[in-house]
């Protein structure tokens, strides 16, 4: 197994490391002390196209390998753990679309998510179930030609700030973990409410 990256990937890693030193490190302490969302740092990464490092080129990503991607995430985490959490939560949302979305959904959402235009959130974890899908209590039922989703999610990074949430809910409760579907929830969707941020010991950005 080779752990080498090519010249193009190295140039991307070097550029990200510079932004991490110049921008992310400068903001990290302020985010943590003021419990302010890491918007400026995320934006700096988005302007570089880093919101799409997990995506193939056909959907606006860099098409880089897993080693280079890991090096970028490592650099971001070393500079600001909150920004790393927000960025990788965005990856979870876009990976969900890449793996399970229709081609139409991929073409619409992924290029905008990769360019830094749209921020995603990954809505899985629940108060009583943690991150165990089998114990999920959020239910989605057919209603009036669409879907009605009822439930609560917990510790969802980016949730209130996100332009879309990929939200998981049971559509066939009798099937357990195999009866779960993912839904695209655009910002402003009627019925979505957000609580105040949890008081955590760290990652307060």
Topology:
Elements: H1 7-34, H2 39-47, H3 66-79, H4 81-100, H5 103-115, E1 120-123, E2 139-143, E3 146-150, E4 164-170, E5 180-186
Q: Tell me about the biggest sheet?
A: 3 strands, mixed
User: What gyration radius follows from the Cα positions, in whole Å?
Assistant: 18 Å
Number of helices in the DSSP assignment:
5
Outline the low-pLDDT stretches.
Answer: none
Span of the ends, CA to CA: 37 Å
Name the helix and strand elements from N-terminus to C-terminus, one letter apiece. HHHHHEEEEE
Describe this structure in words.
- The chain is α+β, with helices and mostly antiparallel strands.
- The chain is built from 5 helices and 5 strands, in the order αααααβββββ.
- β2 and β3 form a beta hairpin.
- The radius of gyration is 18 Å and the shape is globular.
- The model has no long low-confidence stretch (mean pLDDT 95).
Key terms:
three-stranded mixed β-sheet; two-stranded antiparallel ribbon; 205 residues; alpha+beta; 41% helix
Short structural description:
The chain has 205 residues and is an alpha+beta fold. It has helices at residues 7-34, 39-47, 66-79, 81-100, 103-115; strands spanning 120-123, 139-143, 146-150, 164-170, 180-186. The strands form two sheets. A three-stranded mixed β-sheet has the order 1-4-5.
